[in-house]
């Protein structure tokens, strides 16, 4: 089963500093864990695994958010302002291969392009 946990248009801050994920894509971030560091393991569209360092942060304007270090990914994949980034929870059934169901976190980036006078969204590869 595939569930989009978070999706947004990429901002200048997201590209230059860190990806900001508000306090609710997969549930509420615990208030007692502010400053807690963790790592997010994600797979991109090409099957490459990425390790994003994360930290729960608080800002008076935004509130609590997950600060995701993804700059290497941004540079390598040429992510740009106004691209759309999605973090997806995907359960893969490996029963046919003799294993149990596995949970994967995937990252997808799409860019709006104009083709024959119409806007379409295309996956970045």
TrEMBL record:
Pfam families noted in UniProt: B3
Keyword set includes Lipid biosynthesis: no
A single GO molecular function term of this UniProt record: DNA binding
Signal peptide limits: none
Keywords, alphabetical: DNA-binding, Nucleus, Transcription, Transcription regulation
InterPro entries tied to this protein: B3_DNA-bd, DNA-bd_pseudobarrel_sf
Name of the protein this chain belongs to: TF-B3 domain-containing protein
Lineage: Eukaryota, Viridiplantae, Streptophyta, Embryophyta, Tracheophyta
